[in-house]
UniProtKB/TrEMBL annotation:
The lineage of its organism: Bacteria, Bacillati, Actinomycetota, Actinomycetes, Micrococcales. One of its GO terms (molecular function) is DNA-binding transcription factor activity. Residues 6-74 form the HTH gntR-type domain. This is GntR family transcriptional regulator. InterPro entries: Tscrpt_reg_HTH_GntR, WH-like_DNA-bd_sf, WH_DNA-bd_sf. Keywords: DNA-binding, Transcription, Transcription regulation.
């Protein structure tokens, strides 16, 4: 899971986000502790904690004092909105700009996407 070029704590946060979106962690369920993440990935617990705290800062997780971290209500929906916005900014806008440069109109682009979707 750990990949070069991206901070480990960001990868931990993204993995938890993926698990929330995929339904592995439902609202009000506990996520693994920073020590569990640290042991699993063989990293410093402070690094794992930094990733978890990113999600706390975003309101995706919350802390029950003395118990652990839990998935906040509405976390999945907020993550989907965040990911859709990122998808638009990182993929869709550059795709549309390149299509315009190449003279590909929206109908042609839609057909291209539909054709690729069938073969994928």
């Amino acid at each position: 899971m750990i990949e070069e070029g991206k901070p480990i704590f960001v990868q931990i946060a993204e993995q938890i986000e993926d698990d929330i979106i995929d339904g592995v962690y439902l609202p009000e369920t506990q996520v693994p502790s920073t020590n569990e993440f640290a042991a699993f990935y063989r990293i410093n617990p402070a690094t794992a904690g930094k990733g978890v705290n990113l999600l706390v800062d975003d309101g995706i997780l919350y802390k029950k004092r003395g118990i652990g971290m839990f998935v906040a209500d509405g976390a999945r929906e907020r993550l989907i909105v965040k990911r859709r916005d990122a998808f638009r900014d990182e993929y869709l806008r550059p795709l549309l700009a390149e299509a315009a440069k190449l003279g590909i109109d929206p109908q042609q682009l839609t057909e291209m996407i539909s054709t690729e979707g069938v073969s994928a």
